[in-house]
Amino acid sequence: MACAQIRLKLLPSIHTFFNKLVHVKVEGVAPHKSVELRSKVVDDRGMVFKASAFYRADENGSVDVCSAPSLGGSYTGVEPMGLFWSLAPEILHNKFTKKNVLSPTLVEIQAVNGETGEVLVSETNERRYMMEGMKRIPVQEGRIRGVLFIPPGKGPFPGIMDLYTFGGGLSEPRASLLANEGYVVLALAYYGYQDLPKKPKMLDLEYFEEAVKYLRDHPEVKGPGIGLISISYSGGLAMAMSSFLPGITATVCINGCIGNTVLPLRYKDIVIPPLPPDTANVTFTDSGLVDIRDALPDPSSEESKASIFPIERASCRFLFAASEDDHNWNSVTSAKHAAAVLRDHGNQAFDVVTYPKAGHFLEVPHMPFCPSGFHAAVGTNVVFGGEPKAHSEAQLDLWGKVQEFFRTYLGNKSNIAAYPDNNNNKIEI
């Protein structure tokens, strides 16, 4: 509710896509008065995330978050999307979860009197995932389970398969937002979803081969090949798929591991064992969180040899993205090792981008930062690394690079321009 003439504006509209900027402005407060801005969101599990920042109104009684600095709170300085990426869980070690993208994520924004705590005005930003006319189709085709997103307009479109983290289930936000850019995107589940095994003893690469064939053969997908986008555990799956399976043209690996992990991976008569973790290298943070960054052996070591994916067999283009402060494992070492193997085999079809001070979960732009959480393979809460501001900048920058990568090597029907580079990353070609 508004007090007198005080207005809270969310521009260009209260309805925006999740990955787009929202321009927050407050007008009509007393000149030079303290104003606290608060944000709050409840995720699909009922977990509450909050952020706040203190501002000083200008001589006209306005606060423009795109130009005014926060003087304290969840972040400081000029941060146009700070009220979104700095959202933190009320209960520690929880990651923001969005299970179904048919409904928007609702972020409540409040302007509060910085001296009395009185709520002056509030508004709700509806952060959507699917553009009008998008088709969301549950997939149950043979063994394949997932959700297919088909953009509006005249196809066929380039196809992308979206693989998410270890932990089971299905994640739709990135797939739907990618589909908005002019792609048919299959968000593929691979365990712990519907009738898929809940606790598999081994993963079968032939399941993923069936999914590649399904996507390539879909009448709305143009060929000849498809793209892959992956993160964390699925980064290894994407490398394995690119190494063994035909029909893959462009692969994005975000904070993946060059070696197989956790579960044996089988393809026909080949079984790739997981890297043997060394519990002696597991440490603890000052707050008691488990730190597994150095638990896996170096990919170039003799003990790792049997578990390393034969990436030299791949014929696709790669984009390896790695966070320098990733504490799930050493993503930079893996990315550089993968690049070295390709280079040693005369293959220059790759890019490596690294992000200082970013943590493990490089998600879509403006996703709340997740510094720690439950790790399905470890069975307890672990530290994932990163600093909130640097991590947010990395997410925004990487999203632009992913768009450019797929436009270049898959092509699409979108004329949406790439996000600008924030110049804080390192690129190796």
From TrEMBL:
- Which InterPro entries did the record assign? AB_hydrolase_fold, Acyl-CoA_thioEstase_long-chain, BAAT_C, Thio_Ohase/aa_AcTrfase, Thio_Ohase/BAAT_N
Q: Which residues form the active site?
A: 232 (charge relay system), 326 (charge relay system), 360 (charge relay system)
Q: Name one GO biological process term.
A: acyl-CoA metabolic process
Which Gene Ontology molecular function entries are recorded, alphabetically? Answer: fatty acyl-CoA hydrolase activity
For this chain, the family text in UniProt reads: Belongs to the C/M/P thioester hydrolase family.
Q: Tell me which residues make up the Acyl-CoA thioester hydrolase/bile acid-CoA amino acid N-acetyltransferase domain.
A: 21-141
Q: Which residues form the BAAT/Acyl-CoA thioester hydrolase C-terminal domain?
A: 204-411
Q: Which domain of life is it from?
A: Eukaryota
Q: What is this protein called?
A: Acyl-coenzyme A thioesterase 1
The family database entries (Pfam families) matched by this protein are listed as: BAAT_C, Bile_Hydr_Trans
